[in-house]
């Protein structure tokens, strides 16, 4: 390895460490989730509780069971060929919506703080 390889490795490590520090310092707590069926709002869910709560939404292929707990939400059960919605797991960021295309259900999260997608100088 020459000095250019060490320089490249150190730059990648600095970027990785700074990315980790920024993500750990900036925490956004999810406050509400909006559940849409066929592009229409069908339910607003408050995520600011600590208890495990369960909601059932009518989907295109059948019922979609949604669970919430501690500012997180997930699809517990749904009727679809590959069950991708329930395999996605817990979501707590507004940058990561839950989309169940076979059931035409979309879950969008709103955070209590405004999230920044990009910073332009």
Give the biggest sheet: 4 strands, antiparallel
How much strand? Answer: 35-45%
* Mean pLDDT over the residues: 85
Distance between the termini: 36 Å
* Global structural class: alpha+beta
Tally the helices.
2
Could you describe the 3D structure shown?
The chain has 121 residues and is an alpha+beta fold. It has a domain at 30-111: mini-chromosome maintenance (MCM) complex, domain 2 (Sandwich), CATH 2.60.320. Helix content is 23%, strand content 36%. It is built from 2 helices and 7 strands, in the order αβββββαββ. The protein has helices spanning 3-25, 84-88; strands spanning 30-37, 40-46, 53-58, 63-69, 72-77, 98-100, 105-111. The strands form 2 sheets. The chain has a 4-stranded antiparallel beta sheet with strand order 2-1-7-6. It has a 3-stranded antiparallel beta sheet with strand order 3-4-5.
Give the topology, please.
Layout: H1 3-25, E1 30-37, E2 40-46, E3 53-58, E4 63-69, E5 72-77, H2 84-88, E6 98-100, E7 105-111
Antiparallel strand pairs: 1-2, 1-7, 3-4, 4-5, 6-7
Observed structural traits:
single chain; 121 residues; alpha+beta; mini-chromosome maintenance (MCM) complex, domain 2; 4-stranded antiparallel sheet; 3-stranded antiparallel sheet; 2 helices; 7 strands; 23% helix; elongated
